Amino acid sequence: MRIGRLALAAAALLLLVTTASLPPGTPSGGPGRWDGSSADDAHTRPPVLRPPHEVPFGAFVGSWDSYIPQIQRLSAWLGDADIQVGHTYLAGNGWADVEGDNQVLGLWSQWRLADRSRTLVLGVPMLVPNEGGQPDSEVAALLARGNRGEFDQHFRRLARKLVAFGGADTVLTLGWEMNGTTYTSRCRPDPAAWKAYWRRIVTVMRAVPGQRFRFDFAPTRGLDAVPWTRCYPGDDVVDIIGMDAYDMPAGATFDDMVAEPYGLQDQVEFAARRGKPVSYPEWGLFRNGDDPEYVRRMIEWIRTHDTAYQTVTDYCPHGFWGCDRNPRSAEVFKRLMGGSKGAPGGAASPPAAGR
Q: What DSSP string describes 266-332?
């Protein structure tokens, strides 16, 4: 299409005016996405696409010891696929939960140690009660107490147990979905205090001899209660930049989920600038019913980016094997993931002990 000189000049003037009106340091991709990088970063972002490749994968099939056999059943459904990632959560009703149940941690560690290519991903609440509907004022007060060191011993005990049981290389999704409103372990009431508290917890856990933990910063996709970039605690205390990515809101296309502020594209670019892999600790269906196109596009996205691991949330309404509401999506998932042998050697290597 030919464009006249006058139209080109007008377009250039509009671009100049629009860019000049942005706050200093805001990437030209749009206002509201600034994460502290300089404006020049918008023009020097590294490429994030990779040739399609296998990624270590798994599914959340339950939090307790009785669910571990479900992993083998899911594998059989997928044509004996090599499920390399086990994903579970610590309950957050009280601090004893955060310290970890000995039996449960021991059994999950046995599963992990049975195959060196396996990875255990463990959701760890930062505050309790984690789902108690605490008001923002109470969350802010708890964050202040955490930064005074009142809760250090609980995370130290968890770290020691994991090392003792053979889970020294566990991936920890500490304070997952911190940019939302569901959990007490959330960021919005005081982002500065939340970041400082994350840093404190990581420092306490890394001080335990023998540990090789990796810490996964895993917000929800998009703009939730607060931009997740405001919660990012620093490159030195984050190993993986994750994202919980469900098929929502209603009517959204996958391209919308890629392009939205704080969406999938922003995630992979944010991670690439820092030389870190991404992950998808939780993904699945939610607001658009049985949506095979979302499943196909999500798996394609995962396989063409620097993804450390991915785990589907496999219960209704989200999943494919453990939920009978999504037969078309289940068919696509099974076709694309069936017989998969995961990635050679499993997930990316953990940091050196004692880092």
A: HHHHHHHHTT--EEEEEEE--SSSS-HHHHHHHHHHHHTS-EEEEEEE-STTT-SSS-TT-HHHHHH
Overall fold of domain 52-337: TIM Barrel (3.20.20)
Confidence of residue 345 (pLDDT cuts 50, 70, 90): low
Nearest-angstrom CA–CA distance, 179 and 219: 6
> Cα separation of 67 and 321, whole Å?
14
Q: Confidence band (pLDDT; 50, 70, 90) for 32? A: very low
**φ and ψ at 271, to 5 degrees?**
-70, -40
| Between 349 and 334, the higher pLDDT residue | 334
Fill in the amino acid letter for 298: M
What confidence tens digit (pLDDT) does each residue in 283-323 have?
999 999 999 999 999 999 999 999 999 999 999 999 999 99
Question: Strands 240-242 and 245-246, how do they pair?
Answer: unpaired
Place of tokens 């009978």: 324
Eight-state DSSP code of residue 234? -
CA gap 220, 180 in Å, rounded: 7
Q: What is the DSSP letter of 66?
A: G
Take residue 77 and report the two structure tokens written for it: 């459904």
Average pLDDT of every residue of the chain: 87
User: In residues, how long is the chain?
Assistant: 355
Other Cβ atoms less than 10 A from the Cβ of 135: the count is: 10
| pLDDT exceeds cutoff 90 at 48 | no
Q: What is the dihedral of CA 334, 257, 131, 211, to 10 degrees?
A: 70
Task: Find residue 278's DSSP bridge partners.
Answer: 241, 307
Residue type, 265: Q
- Label residue 41 by pLDDT band (50, 70, 90): very low
Type and span of the H or E element at 124: strand 119-124
Return the bridge partners of 120, or none: 86
Confidence band for 46, pLDDT divided at 50, 70 and 90 = low
